[in-house]
Each structure stands twice: as C-alpha cells, then as structure tokens.
Amino acid sequence: MAKIQQWVKANLTIVICGSLALVSIVLLLLGMFLPTAQADLAADKSVYDGLQGIPGKAANERVIEELRRKQAEVNRSVQAFLAAAAKTTPRTLLHPDVFPEPKERFDATEFKDECDRKRLALLALLNAKDEPGQAEIDDFREQILRAKQRQMLQEGETPAASTNLLPMPGGVRSPAAPGGRFGFSAGFGPAAAGGFPGAAAQIPDGMSPEEWVKEDPHAGASVKRAREIYCYAKDESLDPRSLITDRYPSPEIMWEAQCSLWIQEDILQALARLNTEVANQLPEQDRWVGNLPVKRLVYFITGSPLKASSGGDVGTSGRSMGISHSQAKSVLDPVPPSSSLFTNRQAGENLDVIPLTIGLVIDSNYLLRVLDEISKIGFYTTLSVSYEAIPYDPTLRGYIYGPAPVIGVRLEVEHCILRDALTIGDKKYVDLMPETIKTGTWVSPTVGGPAGGSIGGDRGFGPGFSPRGYGPDGPRRGRFGPGDN
C-alpha cells in the first residue's frame, strides 16, 4: 500500500490527467445517449423559479376568500329574487277558512258568493260593459220618438191618432214618426234581421253618421254605451274555471277557481293600467273605448297545471273548453290552452306551469305594449301571438272600436308559480294547496260534464264582431275612419 502511495505521489500529474480524461469520456457518452437531458433540466429550473416567485400561503387565502365572497353574493341575489318573486303580485284568499281543507265553520256557499263578487270586480277593474242589449236599444228608440214628438209640438203640429202611440207628458199621444217628414223612419218599423228594430244595416245615401245615430236606435244606443266605458267585456268573457254554479263545490274546484281569479287579476290589472295610462293623457271627453288601446276582452281561458310525464314530455289534464285550433275560423274563436308547450318547462314539486289563452280586440299600434305589460307582471311568458284585421263597419251598431286600425288577437301565455316562494298572507302557496292538487292526482272535470257540475257549461263563446269607427265628435277622416272614401 505504501508503494502505491509513493507511486501516486511520484506520478501525481499523470493520475490527475488520466482521471480528467476518464470523466470526459463518461460525460461524452452520457451526452450521446441523453441529448435532451440539458433541455429537461432547463425546463425544470424554469418551473422551479416560477414556484419560488409565489408568496406561498397568502395567495391561497386570497383566492379562497374571493370565491367565498362571490358565493355569498350569488346567495344574496337568489334570496332577493325569491323575495321579489313572492311580492310580485300580492295575493289574497277569497275566504280564509277554505284551504287546504275547509274548516268546520266554513259554509261553501260563501265561497261561491265571493267568486261572483270578484268576477264583477274584474269587470269594474277594466271599466267594462258589453254592447247594448235589446232593452237598451228599445229605450233609445223611445228617446228618439219623444224627441220627434217634442219637435212636432214645438212647430205647432198635432200628431195624428194611431194605435202605435207613446204617452207624452200631459196626456198627449203621438204615433211613430213616418218616413218622409223627418227623412229616415228612425227604425220604428218591424225588427230587422238579427232581432233588432230598425232598417237594414246600411246608412242611406246622403246621411251623415251623426244623422244616422239620431235616427237608428241600435246605432244610437251603441254610441252611447261606447262613450261610457274603457273596454268591452261581459261575465262570459271571463274564465269559466272561476264560475262556480254548485252550491257546495269541492275543495279542488274552489282551489282552481281561486287560482284562476289570481291569474285573471294579474292580466286584467296590466291591461287596465295601460288603458288608464293612455286615458290620463287625453281630454276628459275623449276618454272612451274608441280612443284606448285595449278595446275588448273576448275570452279568457285558464288551463290545468301542466304535468311532466314519464317520457319527459309535458302533458296536461283538465277540462275541455272552447273549440280545437283546427275548428277555429278566427283568432277570436275561443280555443283551449295547448296541452304541450315548446318551452318544455317541467312542472314538479317546486313549480306549477299553467297555460292560458286570451282573446282581445286592441288598437294595432299597441300590440307590443300589450305584450310588454303582460311580461312585466312576473312569470308570465307569451308563447304565441295570432292576429287578424277587424274590418270597419259604418253602421255603428254593437261594438264600436274607434278610428284607429283594430286587430283581433289571440295570446297563448305560460304562467309559472314557484310553490315555495309565493306567499299568501302569512302562509306559503304550497301549504294552502289541497293534497290532491299538490300531488297531481286531481283530474279536473270537463265543463258541463257529469263529473263537473261545479263549473258552468257552454258559455256561448263566439267572435261576435261588430262595427267601429265612430269618434267622440262624429266621424274622423284618415285610415279606417268613417270619413274615408
């Protein structure tokens, strides 16, 4: 060993140079077999340097805190939305002792009476009446005759005796005015076609609309009615579901009537607001149906809540109302809500999806405003709009819609109710539902069918369109006006 050490010391230069040569040969071989080693090392170094630049724990806390803040903001938004949804349209019950089960002290006849009062209130909300009936036309006929009798007496003429007399003040009697002396006969002859007294529905040549209204009882009564209201509607225009005819209706029937009235109130309030807004911008003498956007409610049909079938399609159960789409010849023929909707919203434990159809006559210039007002209510989506022009009729009999272009419109609408969000008083909507309604096992009876009995049958729906075009100060010129040539 000592000899080896002496030799190494004596030949130290040779040993060092040999070692370096050996290391060089090894590195050369490694470089040949691992050409990417240096590049890999450089990439790893870059990642390492990047990690060294991160301040560790502080950055993680900031990220987590930001995520927590965003989550809390989303939760607040959801809660605010649900709170707003619950207050979108305040709901009140017709009777406090009905739902989910009638209390012992409850008298079902009281609910029926409340429904009747609410339906009248809905018509009053629209400031609406129907076209004049036969009695009102007869009254106007008598007014015309009396005016003519007074004129004859003022001119010193004594009406000849006749069997067709009306009593005059002071016992004087006068016959129905004949044709010729006063121009037109004022319709005092036999009833014309359609059951109304008067001449054929055609204004004689040379007679102005003002003169015609003074001569024809039907036209005169129609103009008088139009000047009294903001909108045409009658009891039959409202949803049959809210009309209860049974003295002791079932809880399910009462619930359907209650929900129907809520929905009708929402929609009709929106339409009434639009009419009132426009009316307030007009002189008082011009605030009548002929100058307002929504001119007539023809029908309102609320369907049963849609149910999700096992196949995922949306179906509906419920009573049959109106006629089928294929049978409708006009958009103002009442058709029931569709049994399937392209939105395919799925009803379930937390959501009710209710379809409805509405038939209206409106000023064509306000179609988009009507749709906008309905959408503002909350959770009402207009799915389909069908419309047709309503031709002008110069006879001014029946419905008078004013000088603007008028269209008949059918709206198909979908309404969603968030069961857990909606509150009525101090209770949730879902807690007030009868159990069979909540579970979806109730099948609504057909209108007028043997299982129904609680809901009115055929309501006599139909288009029933009549003239328009008479302005508050007589005929107006312009498009579709009675003064057009």
Structure write-up:
It is a single chain. This protein is an alpha+beta fold and 485 residues long. Among the domains are: 264 residues, no CATH class; 68 residues, no CATH class. The protein is built from twelve helices and 14 strands. Helix 5 runs parallel beside helix 9 and helix 9 packs across helix 10. The protein is elongated.
Strand order of the largest sheet: 5-8-10-9
Along the chain, the helix and strand elements come as HHHHHEHEEHHEHEEEEHEEEEHHEE
Radius of gyration: 40 Å
The backbone outline, from C-alpha atoms, is elongated
Based on DSSP secondary structure assignment, what is the total number of beta strands?
14
How many strands, what sense, and barrel or not for the largest sheet?
A: 4 strands, antiparallel
Poorly predicted spans: 161-200, 309-320, 447-485
Distance between the termini: 137 Å
Question: Which whole number gives the mean pLDDT?
Answer: 73
Strand content: 5-15%
Please, how many helices?
12
Structural class: alpha+beta
- Residue share in helix: 25-40%
